[in-house]
Design goal:
This protein has 539 residues and is α/β, with parallel strands linked by helices. 26% of the residues lie in helices and 15% in strands. The chain is built from 15 helices and 20 strands. The longest helix has 17 residues.
Length: 539
């Protein structure tokens, strides 16, 4: 029976290094994840998405892959990953793994072979080795800049000591871009897909899905570029890659799925990746970046449905991930929007206001038709850690930006599981190892142990909302009807007498007469919904 489970799934994102430590060395691993599978089952999610767990030098948190068919020893072994996949299935949890096809590690065998093989070799054709400009090739081949800051090109030194060509890396120098015009690259990744599908994974999150293909000739961006037509992203050739991948996935049973990381300027561009013979779904970054404003939130929801309708793809809803500011902190700021180019990492935030709005936003995402992604710690209401010492920061964006961008480590701090201990239960009992990034003292009150029996906690709210969503909302049609509940509100009805109401007006708004409260993001007062909170109602 076809269920198309991915159209409505609640998917939990696991950043393995920071989820749970099973061997007591202060770093999260597969053993830690396996020990917490009952927690994830009881939370009420449908699937788990794992950030890269492959062999890697960890120059970019595992997104610099040295071997796509093995597990980094930091996390465990391939056999342990196979057991984890099987055990997750036993708990009713599907498994998605991160696929990183735009680039690999500079320690990948292919890149090491390319450096050793020398100029003009077939090994170098798998990457973008290009002669430099200038009299002696001393200038980069074009004006492209890295997403992490600085030039997107690094010049190599040949084995004889002479200056060689430049290679392209849209991220860190340790992450050389692969040349997707080369048939061996395409064949390799098709084989990688089959390798993990044969081991039971239920799908893939595709990293930088919009970036694989480059414009022929690698032209300059220029001083006044059209952001909808950049030479290093959203090139037409990428769609043929996904059509070939989709055929592979469709050849396996169990409704395997793709979700794409597609950061593009317009909904029309993004929708092309979701045609019926390409990716199944993509992350909704417009929603993640949206400020706390009722009109803006409703506008993003409307635009999302309008953009997805022509291709028949389900929308997705996400508030945070491993690359962004945790939304508890973002919603407590004066400017509640998010921009990857200007994260404003040190902006002050009101934690009480941020938590209240984050609870309301959680109810919004879980009430909307479509899929939803929960980043680890969202269900605990964890804030961004903004005061990590410079010497502990590991994100390459910190170094590449000269310290002007403090990077993404603040949303990757290890989870607190218990009220006490060196690592608040992140490492097993008896371990004295400090976690790889330090946890704030205040997180003792945000730990799973502190929240699991508290009827008013974030964790209790998420568990209740996920259970109600599965029981009452998932079976419904993927549609909603907007309701005018007054200025500063987001209100809609779904089938079966369900109503959602969010209040961002600055003052209380009345609840509809006769409505029964199913779930509230905070206390209600005299039949009214206070500002900056939300409620699920049965009419």
């Amino acid at each position: 029976m076809t269920t198309q489970w991915w159209r409505h799934a609640a998917i939990y994102q696991i950043y393995v290094r920071s989820f749970a430590d099973g061997d007591g060395n202060g770093t999260g691993d597969l053993a830690g994840v396996r020990s917490r599978l009952p927690y994830l089952r009881d939370l009420g999610v449908d699937a788990l998405w794992f950030n890269p767990w492959y062999t890697s030098p960890m120059a970019d948190g595992g997104y610099d892959v040295a071997d796509y068919r093995d597990i980094d020893p930091l996390f465990g072994t391939l056999a342990e990953a196979e057991r984890l996949i099987a055990e997750a299935h036993e708990h009713g949890l599907r498994v998605l793994v991160d696929l990183v096809p735009n680039h690999c590690s500079d320690q990948h065998l292919w890149f090491r072979d390319a450096l050793a093989a020398g100029p003009g070799s077939p090994e170098r054709e798998r990457f973008w080795f290009v002669p430099g400009k200038g009299a002696d090739g001393e200038l980069p081949p074009n004006d492209w800049t890295s997403y992490f800051g600085g030039s997107a090109w690094t010049r190599i030194t040949e084995a004889d000591g002479s200056a060689g060509p430049w290679y392209l890396h849209m991220f860190a120098p340790e992450q050389p871009d692969l040349n997707w015009e080369h048939p061996e690259v395409r064949a390799e990744f098709e084989d990688i897909l089959r390798f993990w599908l044969d081991r039971g994974v239920d799908g893939f999150r595709v990293d930088v899905a919009h970036g694989l293909a480059k414009k022929p000739g690698l032209p300059d961006v220029g001083p006044d570029p059209d952001i909808t037509d950049l030479p290093y992203q959203d090139c037409d050739a990428v769609h043929d890659v996904y059509r070939s991948w989709r055929k592979i996935l469709d050849g396996y049973d169990g409704e395997r799925t793709f979700v794409g990381e597609v950061w593009l300027p317009t909904p029309e561009q993004s929708a092309r990746y979701l045609r019926p013979d390409e990716l199944h779904s993509a992350f909704n970054f417009d929603f993640l970046c949206c400020p706390w404003d009722a009109d803006a939130l409703r506008g993003v929801v409307e635009d999302t449905f309008a953009g997805h309708a022509p291709v028949g793809a389900p929308p997705t809803w996400v508030l945070s991930n491993h690359d962004t500011i945790r939304h508890v902190t973002r919603y407590g700021r004066e400017d509640t929007s998010f921009d990857m180019g200007d994260k404003r990492l040190l902006d002050p935030s009101d934690p009480v206001l941020g938590r209240r709005r984050a609870r309301a936003a959680a109810l919004l995402t879980l009430a909307l038709p479509g899929g939803v992604y929960i980043y680890q710690g969202d269900e605990l209401g964890l804030p961004e850690v903004q005061d990590l010492p410079d010497e502990l920061l590991q994100d390459p964006t910190f170094v590449r930006s000269g310290g002007t961008d403090r990077g993404r480590d603040g949303c990757r701090v290890p989870l607190p599981w218990s009220r006490t201990g060196t690592s608040l239960g992140f490492s097993p009992e008896g371990s004295t190892a400090a976690p790889w990034l330090p946890q704030p003292e205040a997180w003792t009150g945000l730990s799973v142990q502190a929240q699991e029996d508290d009827p008013d906690s974030f964790l209790t709210l998420y568990r209740a909302a996920l259970a109600l969503r599965r029981e009452r909302l998932v079976p419904l049609a993927e549609s909603l009807t907007w309701v005018d509940a007054g200025p500063g509100t987001v209100c809609f009805d779904r089938d079966g007498g369900f109503r959602f109401l969010l209040n961002a007006s600055g003052s209380a708004v009345p609840l509809p007469e006769g409505a029964a409260v199913l779930l509230a993001g905070g206390p209600l007062t005299d039949g009214a919904l206070p500002t900056d909170t939300a409620v699920w109602l049965s009419l």
